[in-house]
Amino acid sequence: IGGIILQSSLQTGTVITGNRFNNDLQPEITKDLIKLSEEAINTVSNVSVDEINLKSATLRITVTIPSGLDEETRLSLVEEVLNKVNSVLPFAEYFTATDTKKMYDLEINYIDKVGETHTTYLQAIKNANMDTWLIQDMLTPVNPELAQELINKLNAKNETTELPTSGDTENSDTESEGN
Known about the structure:
The chain is built from 5 helices and 5 strands; from the N terminus they run ααββααβββα. It is α+β, with helices and mostly antiparallel strands.
């Protein structure tokens, strides 16, 4: 143990370089493939790509879908977009790991926007270790009881820590002369 401590202390300040994906992520998702994916998604009727990026081995795509759709139509659009991505970047090749090789993760966010409000926020996820993708409604709590408990706690905390309004400065301890 002493040798490990001595060796570590002697290397303090030495930059460790490397790549956590050595010999992984093959085949590579290139900028050209990302552009082809974006073009394929944009061929889906009533869907547009807002953002697409590849960071830390995760391909993240955000698409806008029309508001006011019923669940069946929304899920149909989700599946159509997934099929378009799969046609350019086959899930089995790009988003499925093996025992010896790490691969990419895929995250597609589907939103509609009415002003500054989202009435739909679905997320399709396929990480490299999953057999198939998972779709989750991000605006609906997975555990409604826990969500309500957290909201109640937050509301109680906000009630006890209300700040004085701008007209209520007589009893404020935060003001000092000369400031």
